Amino acid sequence: MTEQDRILLDGFKVKIKQLIALYEQVGAEKQQLLNQVEELENEIDSLRHEKEALTKRYDNLKLAKSLLVSDGESQEAKNRINKIVREIDKCIAMLNQ
Questions:
Q1: Which stretches of the chain score pLDDT less than 50?
Q2: What is the distance of C-alpha 37 from the center of its chain?
């Protein structure tokens, strides 16, 4: 093997080592990004559940407010309750079909 061949071989070895180091670095970055994606997906799920709970709570509060009765509104309250009962009956009828 000539001196020029050794120089080429040494240069090739250096470049291979650089490629291996770069490959390992990219692999580590990929794993870090995958972990970050998983954390963000968990946060999204948590926020989605929190949103659903708050929406349900808001709907319950709206219903409770609509059922509040003052002295002069008892007939209106009865009408609202009857309307809600009719809607529930319609839903039950649809489910039975």
A1: none
A2: 11
CA distance readout (Å), 31 to 27, 34, 35, 97: 6, 5, 6, 52
Both tokens assigned to 71: 């002295």
pTM higher than 0.70? no
Instruction: Confirm if 80 and 66 have CB atoms less than 8 A apart.
Output: yes
Q: Are 81 and 67 in contact (CB under 8 A)?
A: yes
List Cβ neighbours of 66 (8 Å cut-off, separation of 6 or more). 80
Q: Looking at this protein, which amino acid is placed at residue 73?
A: E
Say how far apart CA 34 and CA 12 lie, in whole Å: 33
